[in-house]
Amino acid sequence: MSKFDRNLGLRQLRNAFGTFLTGVTVVTCREESGIPRGFTANSFTSVSLHPPRLLICVDKTAESFDVFTQSKGFAVNILAETQIEISGLFASKRADKFDIADWSESENGNPILEGVCAWFDCKCDPVIDVGDHIILIGRIESYDYNGNMGLGYVRGGYLSLGLEQSAVEAVGGDADVIVGAIVEYDGKVLLIENAVTGELHVPASGLDGTSGSLGKLQNYLTQLGIGISLSVLFAVFENEKTGQQSIYYRAKADSDLVGNKFWSFDEIPWQRIGSDAIKIMLQRYIDESKRQRYGIYFGSDRDGAVETLR
Ligand SMILES: Cc1cc2nc3c(=O)[nH]c(=O)nc-3n(C[C@H](O)[C@H](O)[C@H](O)COP(=O)(O)O)c2cc1C
Fold first, then answer.
1. What is the per-residue pLDDT across 204-217, written as a single tens digit (0 to 9) for each?
2. 27 alpha carbon to ligand 1 midpoint, in Å?
3. Which atom belonging to ligand 1 lies closest to the Cα atom of 158?
4. pLDDT tens digits for 275-304?
5. 160-308 has which fold?
6. How far apart are CA 31 and CA 36, in angstroms?
7. Which class is 6-153 in CATH?
8. Ligand 1 atom nearest to CA at 93
């Protein structure tokens, strides 16, 4: 148990809040001059059906704080699972967010983003001031939704339940699988050395012939002293020769603890990695992380296609 103690810093409390799995939204409005503004928020809560009300918490340090507190209305866009990049874009301080994203406007003129699962257009109730945030309460005037799956967020990382489902369906229910992860910390990836052969591989469960699982992988990483905070699907493939199925995630480690060897991208000793499939997967990971634009590979160890998240 952690007693709240300001001197310990707020990290622990933030971590505890972060265990709550949420969706991801982009909240938008217009400046008085008409310039569109928006930021990523997971503090969305549906408050009341009758009358229809929702809320969003806005950090007082956000650049758009003043704009939102003074605005007569705002829209909440619920992001779809393919919109990780949109979430990153609106969590940034870029001035050209609305030049990059596709959007149209609501009847009240608030930006509605293309491809979202749902949106709500609201007029503002008086804001409520609470500590380092304010609560914006929206009176919902119009809304729409579709069948798209929403993007999830937990422990500082994104989660896509629809894509996880595709992985499970792709490998079939009773197949033995290898479940592994590319674990990154600060631009370096974790490679584990096989004590017998000296070969390097990314951490995985199921390499010993038993069926792997995400739970087993997490236990294994915990034994290594590594907490992972982000697990998004990265590759699902079948070994054409053996029929062995593999599922790999990408994950961010909380730290690079002593005893675990993390390799910076340009120092990876490729000749020591035994599996060609892992080499190709790692190479794609490095390429994609440079562009911060990741995809998911579905196929075999020889041939397949990368589905890119928008
Ligand atoms: C997944 C996610 C959820 C976030 N949720 C909130 C939130 O609920 N309220 C908030 O004020 N900021 C939240 N942020 C941070 C803002 O998006 C971020 O500070 C952004 O830069 C604010 O934009 P601005 O400074 O241009 O206004 C979140 C960021 C991410 C990535």
1. 988 877 778 777 88
2. 9
3. 1
4. 899 999 999 999 988 877 788 888 888 888
5. Nucleoside Triphosphate Pyrophosphohydrolase (3.90.79)
6. 6
7. mainly beta
8. 26
